[in-house]
Request: fold
Amino acid sequence: MTTDAPTAARVSTAEKASWERIKEPAVYVRLISLVVVIGGWELMGLTGNIDPVTFSYPSAISVAFWDLIASGQMTAAAYESSQILVAGLLIAIPLGIVLGILMGRFRTFEYAVDTYVFALYATPVVALAFPIAMVLGVDFVGKTTIVVFFAIMPIIVNVYHGVRNVDLSLLEVTRSFCSTESQRWRDLIFPSVVPYLVAGLGLACGRALVGMVVAEFLMSISGLGALSQDYIGDLELDKGLAPVVLLMAVGIALTKVVNICETKFSSWRVRQES
Amino acid sequence: MSSSDNGTNPTLRLQGVGKWFGSLHVLDDIDIDVKTQEILTVLGPSGCGKTTLLRIVNGLILCERGEVSFKGELVDGPRPEMAMVFQNFGLFPWKRLDQNIGYALKIQGKEKGEIDRLVSHYTELVGLGGFEANYPAQLSGGMQQRAGLARALAAQPDVLLMDEPFGALDALTRETLQEELLRINEAEPKAMIFITHSIDEALLLGDRVLVMTPRPGRIRFQFETGFGRGRDLEELRGGKRFQALRHYLWEALRNPDEEPEPIPELIAE
Ligand SMILES: Nc1ncnc2c1ncn2[C@@H]1O[C@H](COP(=O)(O)OP(=O)(O)OP(=O)(O)O)[C@@H](O)[C@H]1O
Ligand SMILES: [Mg+2]
Reply:
């Protein structure tokens, strides 16, 4: 038989590639940029060029951050916020997947609902906060609903496209081998949707976070949103900005988790990655 | 031809098959019989409707005219007794090689031990032993093509439909698999339709060779090669009859508009 190149050779090339990334200019440029921007900002603060009543600077925010954690305020606020975030995502993810799949697979269902879905997709969700508050109240249910509206759209749209973009020649393979409909979902449709879904989840997490803060600002004030607003109202800008830093960190962490999922679910896409 | 009588009843029968894609007339009046143990090789210019023909036989698409029957039953959809080797391989990118090769068996609900046994047998047979855990993207084009062949063989069909199954292979692998295919056809009688662009391959493998015309695809002519079972490919190649038929096909394909001189060897033997 023919001797094809052993896969070990390819793996080692891939490893080398990821190792060499550290030497890439991108990493340096980012580091230098961070040092310049954060350092410059800090320097402005230290030299008294920032009025602490209207803005703050990194070291002051860091100190405020630890103060808020030490006093337990930050943890309590984060706990409160995370409830509507988690509840919203727990509803948005399964609901978005189901709606996306139904829309992608069944024409009748698609025609019945696509007007609303795409209208909502085009609407800034913030504008929905007041009607939602009217109907569902300004507490947990209303706030969670806002998070759901923020998070669900990219999930629906991505899953829909995933189902739609199923490889037609593979669909024919499943038909040729007399696959049943449920086997077809298992072997073809779900696996084709996964990469789209993961990308959708990444967007959804980011938007859910925005939705959470919007809900906490616009409805009954609570959680990290309340913490931030209270201190800004008291003109303690360093403490007012500390919850924003936490939100930023959570946002970055969520994106990272999704990125890791992305690579984990696509170990079979070796060629596309390189 | 084969001495056993079950080698002579048509397993597949196409009668007056005509196919249009919208206004594009792709196939016209195709009549073909393929016997139980017969290998029919099909030659024809690119785009003449060979893949379309196989898809119709497989029941993947319907024809506007005529009909296809399998053992006397009308083919109106795919059936497990037939397996296709796809021109574009058709492997699932997220399935490992062994899962791809065992795909048809899993669909048929075979038990795991049986699947494992058949998968490892056919994986070895196409020379892919050791690559079971690889994904298609990690395999060369030729390896993917062999995986597609192994998947169809593992299904142990009565009818094997092969769409240029050796097109991406190097000469050596190709020859090994040609011999393997003839051996399989003897061991487990199957009706095979084998599409190829290689005249040599058509003659080496075919009990019968069919040549198609383009736009719309019609049967231009077909003939029995008459090389018989258990043929030795090396010996065949050097033979006078093979050379004569090869020349005949070559002339025919080179001049699509005129029929070449009929050769006495076609009628003799
Ligand atoms: N689904 C389709 N819709 C419209 N036209 C099609 C479709 N499938 C094939 N055709 C057309 O039908 C004709 C025959 O195509 P087919 O794939 O059967 O050719 P082929 O003989 O297999 O060619 P090749 O040797 O290049 O594989 C071509 O002109 C092609 O463009
Ligand atoms: Mg073709």
Summary: Chain A touches chain B at residues 1-2, 4-5, 7, 10, 169-170, 172-173, 175-180, 183, 187-188, 191, 267-272 (CB under 8 Å). The mean pLDDT of chain A is 83.
